[in-house]
Structures are given as structure tokens and as C-alpha cells.
């Protein structure tokens, strides 16, 4: 009996101790594995199971760099328990191209149709077509090729109709048109002023006697049965009474027509081109036109050559034209022969008008 009591109260046997240690170790291992498994599931759930993109974090405060082909992660948002910290400035986004605000066509390359900022208003047979063709070479000018006759014949159609005729221009370009009959139309100055008081006006003038003969020559080519130049010019040639009702004569009374324009536009907004100098020095005259329009002197001597057949300068071939460009067959037409006495009488008639014109515009065109 004493052995049994001593056996029960004594220390445990070695095999039993080993079993207890093994059970305790196994319990700790299972607990660790479960905890690790739960952590793994949490990470996977936030990344793959929820579809989060695989990426690399951005540079840390230590200055570590991303691999060149890695896509940086979006910065994590603050947790509810954390105050929102100011974020680093985001990279500047490349702005999408914007269309010009004044381009109603929806394409900045095409531009938009505008009312003209400049007009060639006169005079017929003075050289207006040459000025128009020469100035159209300039990249900052877009001009209507035909004569719209808006301010004399088609004013009732309205400004929207007039605008629809214009070429499309960019914000940096000038819209221009020419109608030589405007200069002698009584209502034209007021109508143009009502469109825009800032309109720049170009008047191409020429010796009024030469201009009248050129006008008659053109009409004769279309109507061979008209009376002679002498017969149309005078009411009484013996008395030297000139018929001012004939349009070919009346157009050359420049000082008279100019007064109507000066009622609405200051002289600084009107530029006068010499038809004679346009032939002898086209680059010089066009240089002054470009200055008046406020554009750089792009058109120079290199753009012209003198055509001996026509008797006036033509444009050399350009990048956009493989051939030289001259005015049409109706330009440079040989004038009909006029009695020198008739020419002298007309010079005397125009002299007081010419002098008044020189004084008004501050230029001597030397027509006498």
C-alpha cells in the first residue's frame, strides 16, 4: 500500500510529460497558422478578390524610384480615424485642344466668315484689280475674288447675306473685298460706317483723263456702236463745256466724291494708291498698303516682274502657283487714239479738281 501512495504522489513519468509538451506546442502552432491565414485572406480580399490593380507604390520619402515600366498606385485615402493630410500636387494634365471661340464653323483650320475689315472702294479703271490680286499673296489677307456690289446694288439683302459671301478667315487674318463703284455711290459711306466705323478704306486713283479713256476703251470693246469719246465727253466742245453727267468723266472728279467719305471717316482711315506708281514701283505701293493694313511687309520686289506685252507688272510664280500670274485679257488693253486737243481740254477741266484733291489728301500725284 505504501508503494502505491508513493507512486501516485511522485513526479509524472517522462512519457506523459512529452505528451503534454507536444499537445501544448501543437495548440500554439494551430493558433499561429489560423492567424496567418486570416491576414492572408484579408490582403487577398482587398486586392485580387476585389479587383484592385497590381501596381507599385510611388516614391517614398527616401527617394526610391519606380521601375520605368511600372504603373504607380493611386495614393491611399485617409482612414476614418486619420485626419486628411494635404496631398502632393498632382501631375499637370495635358489640356485637350480647344477650338477658337470665334470660329463658328467648328474647325480652327477653316476659320469663320466675317464682315470685311478693309474695302477697296475705288476707283474704276484705276488699278483696283491689280491691288486686289497683289494683296491676296499676303498670308494675313483673305479677299473675295468677285465684286459683291453690296453697298450700292445689293444693300437690301442684309449683312448676313453679305457675310455669307466672304472667305473664311482666322483670327489673325484680314477679310477684304473690292467694289470700285462704291467710291461714287452717295449712300456707300454711310452704309459702310453703319457696318463698322473702323473699316479701313483703299482708293486707287489714276490720272482722271487716262482713266476716262481706259473706261471708254473697255465699254467700246463691249458696245462697238457707242458714240465717239469726244462726243460723249462734251456737251459743247467749241465752248469747252464738259458733260459731267457721263459717268466716265464724273468718276475722275475725285475731290467731289471724297467729301462724302470724309463726312463719316477720318482721312487716316483712307489710303490712296497711285495707279501710275503701281505700274512703275509695285513693291513700293504695296508696301504702303501693307503698312496701312497693319500687316508685315511680306510682298516685296521678289514677287514682281514687268510684262512688256501688257505694259504693267505681274506676279512671279509662287509656291502655290507653278506659273506666273498676270491680270486677265481685259487688263492692259491698248487705248483708243484720242485727239490731243480733246485731251488738253479735259486736263484743263480736271485741274481745279486735282489741286483740291492734292490739298485734301496731302499728296501730289503729278497729273498735270
UniProtKB/TrEMBL annotation:
Binding-site residues, 3'-phosphoadenylyl sulfate: 125-129, 206, 214, 331-335
E.C. numbers: 2.8.2.-
Domain Sulfotransferase: 116-351
Source species, domain of life: Eukaryota
Composition skew (Low complexity), residue ranges: 84-102
Residue intervals passing through the bilayer: 20-38
Primary site of residence: Golgi
Bias (Pro residues): 73-83
One of the protein's GO biological processes: glycosaminoglycan biosynthetic process
Keyword terms, alphabetized: Disulfide bond, Glycoprotein, Golgi apparatus, Membrane, Signal-anchor, Transferase, Transmembrane, Transmembrane helix
Residue ranges the record marks as coiled coil: none
Localization per record: Golgi apparatus membrane
Region entry Disordered, spans: 66-111
Entry annotation: catalytic residues: 125 (for sulfotransferase activity)
Membrane topology value: Single-pass type II membrane protein
SS bonds (residue pairs): 314-326
PROSITE patterns named among the record's database cross-references: PROKAR_LIPOPROTEIN (PS51257)
GO molecular function, one term: [heparan sulfate]-glucosamine 3-sulfotransferase activity
GO cellular component: Golgi membrane
Similarity field: Belongs to the sulfotransferase 1 family.
The protein's name in its UniProt record: Sulfotransferase
Amino acid at each position: 500500500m505504501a508503494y502505491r501512495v508513493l507512486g501516485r504522489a511522485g513526479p509524472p513519468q517522462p512519457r506523459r510529460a512529452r505528451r503534454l509538451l507536444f499537445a501544448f506546442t501543437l495548440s500554439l502552432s494551430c493558433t499561429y497558422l489560423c492567424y496567418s491565414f486570416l491576414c492572408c485572406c484579408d490582403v487577398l480580399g482587398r486586392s485580387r478578390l476585389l479587383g484592385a490593380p497590381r501596381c507599385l507604390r510611388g516614391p517614398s520619402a527616401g527617394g526610391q524610384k519606380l521601375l520605368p515600366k511600372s504603373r504607380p498606385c493611386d495614393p491611399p485615402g485617409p482612414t476614418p480615424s486619420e485626419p486628411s493630410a494635404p496631398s502632393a500636387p498632382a501631375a499637370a494634365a495635358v489640356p485637350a485642344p480647344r477650338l477658337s471661340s470665334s470660329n463658328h464653323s467648328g474647325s480652327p483650320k477653316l476659320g469663320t466668315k466675317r464682315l470685311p475689315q478693309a474695302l477697296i472702294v475705288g476707283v474704276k479703271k484705276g488699278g483696283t484689280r491689280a491691288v486686289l490680286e497683289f494683296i491676296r499673296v499676303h498670308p494675313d489677307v483673305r479677299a473675295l475674288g468677285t465684286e459683291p456690289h453690296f453697298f450700292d446694288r445689293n444693300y437690301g439683302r442684309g449683312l448676313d447675306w453679305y457675310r455669307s459671301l466672304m472667305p473664311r478667315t482666322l483670327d489673325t487674318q484680314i477679310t477684304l473685298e473690292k467694289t470700285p463703284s462704291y467710291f461714287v455711290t452717295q449712300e456707300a459711306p454711310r452704309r459702310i460706317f453703319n457696318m463698322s466705323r473702323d473699316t479701313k478704306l483703299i482708293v486707287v486713283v489714276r490720272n482722271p483723263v487716262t482713266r476716262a479713256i481706259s473706261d471708254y476703251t473697255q465699254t467700246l470693246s463691249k458696245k462697238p456702236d457707242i458714240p465717239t469719246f469726244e462726243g460723249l465727253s462734251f456737251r459743247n466742245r467749241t465752248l469747252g463745256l464738259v458733260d459731267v453727267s457721263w459717268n466716265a468723266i464724273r468718276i475722275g472728279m475725285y475731290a467731289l466724291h471724297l467729301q462724302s467719305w470724309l463726312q463719316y471717316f477720318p482721312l487716316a482711315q483712307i489710303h490712296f494708291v497711285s495707279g501710275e506708281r503701281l505700274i512703275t514701283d509695285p513693291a513700293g505701293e504695296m508696301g504702303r498698303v501693307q503698312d496701312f493694313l497693319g500687316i508685315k511687309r511680306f510682298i516685296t520686289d521678289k514677287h514682281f516682274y514687268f510684262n512688256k506685252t501688257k505694259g504693267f507688272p505681274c506676279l512671279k510664280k509662287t509656291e502655290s502657283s507653278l506659273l506666273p500670274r498676270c491680270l486677265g485679257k481685259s487688263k492692259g488693253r491698248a487705248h483708243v487714239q484720242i485727239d490731243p486737243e480733246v485731251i488738253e481740254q479735259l486736263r484743263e477741266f480736271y485741274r481745279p479738281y486735282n489741286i483740291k484733291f492734292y490739298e485734301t489728301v496731302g499728296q501730289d500725284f503729278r497729273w498735270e
